[in-house]
Amino acid sequence: MTNKDKLLNFIGIAKRAGKITTGEDILLGAIRKRKIKFLIIAADSGKASFKKFTDKANYYAIDTNTVLTKEDISKAIGVPRTIIGITDNGFAKRLKEMTNNCKGT
């Protein structure tokens, strides 16, 4: 099993645990309320969405990663999405480690 497969499986576990927030408006509100601990943005997301969420993440000091594509994220959570937010510190910490490991593969 590759690092990417492990990452996608772990995102699926986080989704089933209810620790993932999706949807542009809901995510923006959660970011403003400082509920999001880590953002995963699809590498192939639109320029406007990418800029909006990276700017918000930088302002609120939220770590982001762009190692996955829209297809990867959608496959992991079962819903077509380009951006997901992790709301739990434990899941966020582990996903940061896993996404950093995926960059090397």
UniProtKB/TrEMBL annotation:
Taxonomically, the superkingdom here is Bacteria
Quote the Gene3D superfamilies the UniProt record gives: 3.30.1330.30
Record domain Ribosomal protein eL8/eL30/eS12/Gadd45: where = 8-94
Spell out the protein name for this chain: Ribosomal protein eL8/eL30/eS12/Gadd45 domain-containing protein
Per the UniProt record, the source organism is: Apilactobacillus bombintestini
